[in-house]
Amino acid sequence: MTGAAGAATAPPKPTTAPVVSRPSQATLEQRIASASGLDTSTRSSSPSAVSPRIVGGTETTISSAPWMAQLWYVDDKGTTNDTSDDTAFFCGGSVVSPTKILTAAHCVWDEEHNKAYDWKDHGWVVTGTDQLSPGTDLHGGQATAVLRQWNHPSYNPATIDNDIAVLTLDAPVSAKPIRMTTSGDTASYAAGTSAQVYGWGRTSSTSDDISPTLKTTTLTVHADSTCSGVYAPFVAGHMVCAGTQSGSDTGTKATCNGDSGGPLIVKDSAGNPRIVGVVSWGVADCVEKGYYSVFSKVSTYVGAVYPRIDDSNLSYDDGRADLFVRNSSTKTGYEKDSSGTSFDARVSWGDLSGVNLVRQTDLNRDGYQDLVYRVSSTGDVYWFHVVLNSDRTQGTWTTTKIFTGWKTRTRIITPGDLTGDYLPDVLSVDSAGTLWLYPGKGDGTFGARVQVGTGWGQYNLVLGHGDFTGDGKADLLARQSSTGDLYLYKGTGKSGSGAFSARTKVRSAWTGYNAFDAVGDVNGDGKADLLARTSGGTLYLYKGTGKATSEIFATRVSVGTGFQQYDLWG
User: Fold this and answer.
1) For residues 475 and 464, is the Cβ–Cβ distance under 8 A?
2) Residue 21's pLDDT is what?
3) Kindly report the CA angle at 506 between 501 and 510, in degrees rounded to 5?
């Protein structure tokens, strides 16, 4: 690493290195081999229904749907020679970020025992191939283990309501991600809209065999009233139905067993594919006349799902936002991991002298949280991030300069994704009070800066990380210097002057605190939170409520004392 221009030494940087907790390649291969010869096609869900498949489809290639993922689960219950108690099934899914798979909740939930399946120890995901991979032959694809799982907390196995989930992979995949639709999307759900569905599920009502190759077909979206008239369990607003069922394979276009968790795709106004539904349920054998395939309505759930996509954290494995701080006397940086209600004992990251700003983010969306910091003497801004080796089993840290001469920037913010492309961005306020957006490219580089607004010099605090309002878009908080009033700037998912809605006052005269931080979802409920420190060193957690009003935060909760020793916050 060369030093900044004109500097005598290299920039300061932490010295810690991550421990990549993942199964060895041999363990993963052994797990995959265990699926050979097993019937993994029978994952079912719904009161009188089974997980959908594609009937009436045609073969397609992975290049036409590079985001497609195969979800495999096999648990022999420790009885290798006895298959009678085995659990084995297959689902579909979509890569929505390099380490994130969007799927159905019934694919991660064990209804028999009313608990989540253990995907970390018994599951894996295959991406990058259009051929089914039930064994060690991945057909050029990539097999990846699962680090953790999340299903919607209100998922109801009996009615299949809120049937949506996210698997977090233990290493990033190379497959190209696809975006979810936005919370305000109504056009994609209009009756008569054409949508594409993809999957490896059954292709006939008379055979239980799932397809060895990826299939697709075009389905017609139906009005909620049509769906409700057919299905008593149909929940308008949470579900959408589509397709045609003739009573036989001929003339039917529907999903079926094995397609569960896969995407329903509609192109947006710019012609870009977006996930608008997740394959959920339907009638047995999938062709009964007058019925339709049912999907979870993604526009309803994007606010709950997005925090699971944007949940990289310093401890890596639990999805709760952690805190990075620097001791003002020793200049040592520390990681303090969140337990949900407090912060654990600090862990040293080494010397951070010569730095006057630290921010946490994940610029390359690899699931490992990065640091962005500014060198006091030059104003140069550096990205401290993990680089994985070729087999993704180990990582080392490297430092990359991303901005030069930002000495006079009064604010630097890493809010996450502001533009709706799932790639984290950077904001800065210059000495004139102009707010600039630097759209991230996902590799530590940025597109041309865009002016977002002026007059931001009135604030002595501008910060944010993640979604405060529950709509799946990143937001900002700003505190006015003269009054101490705290304002919410709700993100719109757009760039330029339309990046934020008009400000909303959420607190008045907030002058009792001398330090703040917003690192994301500290308590793990899927809503962005705020941390505030008193002059006495007590740190309070303001849990986000998801409301864009004065009720944006719940009543504060103390999460520790002695925080007056820290002068930089991530």
Assistant:
1) yes
2) 57
3) 130
